[in-house]
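User: Can you model how calcium ion sits in this protein?
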Amino acid sequence: MQVSVVILAAGQGKRMNSSLPKVLQPLAGRPLLQHVINAARSANPVSIYAVYGHGGAQVQAALAHEDIEWVLQADQLGTGHAVMQAMCVIPDDHVVLVLYGDVPLISSSTLARLTAAAADALALLSVELDDSTGYGRLLRDAKGEVAAIVEHKDATAAQLKIREVNSGLMAAPAGFLRKWLLGLDRNNAQREYLLTDVVASAAKAGIKVVAVAAASAAEVAGVNDKIQLSAAESEYRRQRAEELMTAGATLADPLRVDIRGKTSVGRDVFIDINALFIGDVHLGSGVKVGPHCVIANSTIGEGTEIFANCVIDHATVAQGCRIGPFARLRPGTVMHRDVHIGNFVEVKNTEIGAGSKANHLTYLGDSQVGKGVNVGAGSITCNYDGANKWPTFIDDGAFIGSGSMLVAPVRIGAGATVGAGSTITASTAEGKLVLERSRQITIDAWARPKKLDDEQKAEVIAAAIKSPI
Ligand code: UD1
Ligand code: CA
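Assistant: Here's the modeled complex, given as structure tokens:
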């Protein structure tokens, strides 16, 4: 079966009260339409047509990376009219799968059931709702077959009581669908060409209409305003958290883990509250993630422990490392096994060899750090001269005393010791102690200042600022 997908995305989304078009509103950090395209791909379609209207240029730019066909619906004359815009390029022998740009959580398994049911029938995705306000109702004939859909605005009091409703998503053979769409009129409360009217056409033509039940109300929930957007976000969060728990992770609170992308876990991973994972993240077996951490596009090795409040982006961390609390690993950080990166340490574009430590208040940027290195508190690589970035090499077993400035480009030889407080501007020999520090002096004649009144202070200030040196 050859499938063509048509995604309806021309609506403006007035209820969002936003200058961002509705289908670009972010769900888990990505546009709603992106989620729908991802779902559409699961049906292995020959082509995906996105029917756009409002905010067209903006929508196309945001999804420029996607290989899809854009179809303009200049005037929004209804869902039937929208599908019709794409029909002229879809061959008769395809099955057309209609998705909505604002129904982002549709599952691939449901789409597979829907398309399979449409081989020789019109297949509607239906759902039973306790409150069916606003939805089209499924009307069944005496034999229980679906005979038509009546929109909420066109429904009688008795029809309004029907709880079996149309999700809006449907699939049908293209040849039939084209014929039915050409027969649509605007004789309804909304004065629109309603896609749902093809149901009555199919029934009249003796073509079977199949209602495929959605797996849950959540997967067909439309997103029309910020409240529904947050509901979709909660649902997405719940699903991702369940995937992690199914894979064996322990979550301190599944309501306080956000996964915006693909996170995979080994066995016995523990994730504390308020963790945010972005993009592709892998946590190896036994990894512990402390509270309030953000981890993006990174791989964390087995048994590594990340303490509270760390921000990790595009980093590769081997097994047995300890990170944080309050550490920041920026893009290009590579940590070999058993490395310790402590509080208020920032690492960028730096590879750190096995067993090395930078435990407090340090910046390592554009550096190559060997094995067994100790970087003392408050030491930094001065990698930027105001115009260029330069590398620092700290070889195996070096010891960098606290408060040292390593002015790049510079190499600290293997086993060398840098005395605390040194500003190192030239590469150092292996195994030696280097110091850059003025001698300590004692001033016998000095006395502590006394408290002055405002007049006395004014005199001191005037004298001080009169004569720059
Ligand atoms: C539609 C269905 C209704 C169903 C409901 C589920 C019809 C006539 N009715 O109603 O049976 O219960 O969805 O949510 O289909 N769109 C366009 N171009 C248009 C009009 C709409 O692209 O000219 C897009 C919208 O952007 C939206 C989708 O189609 O993504 C649905 O349109 P909307 O107006 O929200 O349909 P409903 O009246 O909610
Ligand atoms: Ca709607």
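A couple of observations from the model: Residues 312 and 329 are 5 Å apart (CA to CA). The longest helix spans residues 226-246.
User: Helpful, thanks.
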